[in-house]
Amino acid sequence: MAHTLLSGPHTLAPTSVSRTMLAVMLALLPATLWGLYLFGWPALYLFVITLLAALACEVLCLALAGKPLHLNLLDGSALLTGWLLAMSLPPWAPWWIGVLGSLIAIGVGKQVFGGIGYNLFNPAMVARVALLVSFPLPMTLWTAPAPLGSAGAPDWLEGLAITFGGATVDAFSGASLLGSVKTEFTLGRELAEILPQGVNTQQLLLGSHHGSLGETSALLVALGGIALIARGVIRWTVPFAMLGTVALLALLFNLIDAGRYPGVDYHLLSGGLMLAALFIATDPVTSPNTTAGQLLFGAGCGALVYLIRTWGGYPEGVAFAVLLMNALVPLIDHYLKPRIYGRDRGGRPLPVVRETAP
Amino acid sequence: MKLFGFRGGVHPHARKERTEQLPIIRLPLPRRLYVPLQQHIGEPAVAQVRPGQPVKRGELIGGSVEWLSAPVHAPADGTVVEVSEFASPHPAALPVTTAVIEVSAHQTPWRVPAEDPFGLSPAELALRIRQAGIVGMGGATFPSAVKLDLARQHGVDTLIINGGECEPYLTCDDRLMRERGQQIVTGVALMLRCLEARRALILVEDNKEEALATLRTLCREQPQITTLSVPTRYPQGSQKQMIQSVLGREIPAGGHATDLGVVMHNVATAYAVYEALVDGKPLVSRIVTVGGGAVPRPANLEVPLGTLVEELLAYCGLEGEAYERLLVGGPMMGQWLPHPRVPVIKGSSGIIALSEAETRVEMPRPCIRCSRCVEVCPSGLLPLELAKRIRKEQFAAASELGLSDCIACGSCAYVCPAKIPLVQYFHYGKGQLQARRVQEKKLDNTADLAATKAQRLAEIEAQKAAAAQARKREAEARARQQAAEKAAAHEAEPCARTEGD
Ligand code: SF4
Ligand code: SF4
What we know:
By secondary structure, chain A is mainly α. Chain A contains 17 helices and 2 strands.
């Protein structure tokens, strides 16, 4: 492309799509490693399977579309999608959940729209919701942490049996915190009865509770996200608005009736909120362009999460919330454009006012 | 003074460290100078010399006939050997009419004018600035006298002097401010006088501490001139951004700086004004930064206009084309040069030869909608959306999104992780819109012509009809007259009088 040389700039920032994806994966690494440690071999198998399936599906789709493999595969986006999906699955789910999820994420969530940059919805969330709706049982069997090497934790062979053999692991299974609280609420019980000791904030921060890899340690997820913001890979807008809205609503309703509405810490630290706010809703492709748009989008995600968690049919609303807001992004982008230099918001030239200096 | 800053912008790696400590040195006169007659925006100058004619340093070799133009002078004593087409510093090396001067061994010294320029009237100052062929030295090359004229007509109050130099690599203005601050300040004072403006503000980016300190000290004796330090950020040097920085005001779309009572000139232009009015030198040389990773000994050179770029490079230790990419101007808004056999002209602030490591070219990838381009755009545009429209050839839609408000600063393309050549899209889009406008105008003209023709035909018809009517009336009149005469022959006169009315 010799004519690229004709116009500047002739110097470019040291960024690239693959470097951006790599930075996000690096930020996910601590939480992922910690989660893999907590949930042991079966989680590792599922993780690897999901990633490989995502890559395989990407290759297949690219080949079918006749697009060059190396460039598109190396951008890392398929790997990241697989990774995010794996972090939102029950860690001991059977292998086919991971494979099917990746197929849906890459095939339906991304490539059907035309590949990277063209998809309207976050691919990992599309897969997560599709799986949850189609296979509610394996998708809500959350495993209690059984750290590698601890008593009763499956070794690598037992892990294979769990992931590939469909071995039942009822001893470890249970509902997540959000799930159990929701069920108890529907039975008309008060929060003080359900959680006599109150919300165990430390447990939520560190992750030693039922949940997915990405739900376990809110602290490690948050640290990874903060690192990304500090390095300028993602912006503060969406996470700030999303977490802020959830926190605000939680505070408000908790003040109204503490027995019915758990507090801020419970909402911020449990479920996939932290992962979604920092790593999923911030997905550049499916979030708005401008600061105002991003704040609105984040606030919308946050409000929907709170609504679904509190009054909806599912204990966790993150994936639904993000997808619903994704659908609104074109509208948000249409109405919240930046003001052009020298023009008012309506695009008319600013009035001529002469400088009258002192 | 409070600063307002401007929206967007980027911080490209400055890469000024290799030349910022190097004093300006004078490049020895080359054997031949290739002086283009068009070194400015506007109409080309008209050749005043013939091949074989001897010329003196500072002699007029190209006169400006049009208002929007600038004259061109001989940078050295010598003989004109040719006036013909020669490659210009342009991406396609477009040929322009160029006077080739064989430089003689002996050079006459400059004759300093006797009169005090501060004793001249503003109109006379403007005239001399015009006669000296001074144009915007920051690279825009807009004839300075025209800008001053316009500003005077608008009664401008504030003169802003751009000492930003926000482009990477370039240090020529920095050195000029450090070494020739006094001349710059005098030049600014003369411009103020010419404009009859109230104050001048010299803006310098805060990464040029020495230049700032020098000018600040010098301005102490000049109550009308203030030096301001502005945060280092690209595109600070752009007029719109600089004015926004100082006044917190935007130039209305389609308007001019003069609408705000402001005019902006570059520090090097102020220096050129000093040289012209105090030293009696028309614009025949300029300071050029020769830099870039491929240049073994980078430098800030004072170069006679018309010197070939290859001579500058050779002087700095670079022979042949041992570089990856050659640019005139800075790497953000500068232009690519296909080869170094083009002359240095009035607007050439830098000659940058980039090494392979500095020009890592990556294949453009699909846009990931990261909105970094939106964040950095100082014009408040949506570069990703503009590019999308232009790619689909939807130029009207792109125009609605503000394509014409793009200042082509390249901030968006600089940050784009997908390496999309956004500015190139915008140039293409603007070109297409322009072509369409021309086309429409042509159609309009055709329609006008058709309408005029129809009207003319109608008029002719009407005239014909009128003539026919007249003839008919005349015939009738004649008939009646004859009848009357016949009658008169029989009776008395009164009828004839009635006919005569
Ligand atoms: S769209 Fe134009 S004005 Fe905005 S950053 Fe890009 S080149 Fe600069
Ligand atoms: S910076 Fe590049 S990749 Fe990002 S939104 Fe703009 S055009 Fe797309």
